[in-house]
Design goal:
- The chain is an alpha+beta fold and 186 residues long.
- It folds into 2 domains: 103 residues, Ribosome-recycling factor (Topoisomerase I, Chain A, domain 4); 68 residues, Gyrase A, domain 2 (2-Layer Sandwich).
- Helices cover 59% and strands 15% of the residues.
- It is built from 5 helices and 6 strands; from the N terminus they run αββαββαββαα.
- The strands form 2 sheets. The protein has a 4-stranded antiparallel beta sheet.
- Helix 1 runs antiparallel to helix 4, helix 1 runs parallel beside helix 5 and helix 4 packs antiparallel against helix 5.
């Protein structure tokens, strides 16, 4: 494997880490309605677990309301069960055609807990990036040891690797800053 391939593979893994952090952050409930809160719920749809977003439309008419309208009204009770099991902390209101979820405002203590949680998630993302960097660094050292690349190429590879880690760590920091801002908005 050439140096360029190692760096490209490393960057792809880092992009996936960023996507993972974004997915985790989307599941953290702020005081605002967001489709990401419910679209990943698994519903027992005629015996097979199905994602809510595949069997219903999810709309956000205002900042504190989520409306779930299934294409098959017979699945409404299953959607309600999934919402109760999800520990979202909201009570679904079923009118026979759709489900309304009112998202309550968060207390100051709860906001601080959520901020700690997202900081922990961000740190896990940074650890993942460092692990990826470590693996790539070992692969580059092996190339030099096997005489596939020169020592100068090895150090150029390390420089490129450091630029990648700096770039993706900065992205995690930016995502974290935005999520904390969203959590503390009233």
């Amino acid at each position: 494997m050439a140096l360029r391939e190692i760096l490209e593979d490393t960057e792809n893994k880092m992009k996936k880490t960023i996507e993972s952090v974004l997915r985790e952050f989307a599941e953290v409930r702020t005081g605002r309605a967001h489709p990401g809160l419910v679209e990943g719920l698994h519903i027992d749809y005629y015996g097979s677990p199905t994602l809510l977003k595949q069997i219903a439309s999810i709309s956000i008419p205002d900042a504190h309301l989520i409306i779930i309208q299934p294409w098959d009204p017979n699945v409404l009770p299953e959607i309600e069960k999934a919402i109760f099991k999800s520990n979202l902390g909201v009570v679904p209101y079923n009118d026979g055609k759709l489900i309304r979820l009112t998202i309550p405002s968060l207390s100051k203590e709860r906001r601080e807990e959520l901020a700690k949680l997202v900081r922990k998630m961000a740190e896990e993302g940074r650890v993942s990036l460092r692990t990826i960097r470590h693996s790539a660094k070992e692969a580059i050292e092996k190339l030099e040891k096997d005489k596939v690349i020169s020592e100068d190429d090895k150090f150029r590879g390390f420089d490129e690797l450091q630029k990648l880690i700096d770039k993706y760590t900065a992205k995690i920091e930016e995502i974290l800053k935005n999520k904390e801002k969203e959590i503390f908005e009233f």
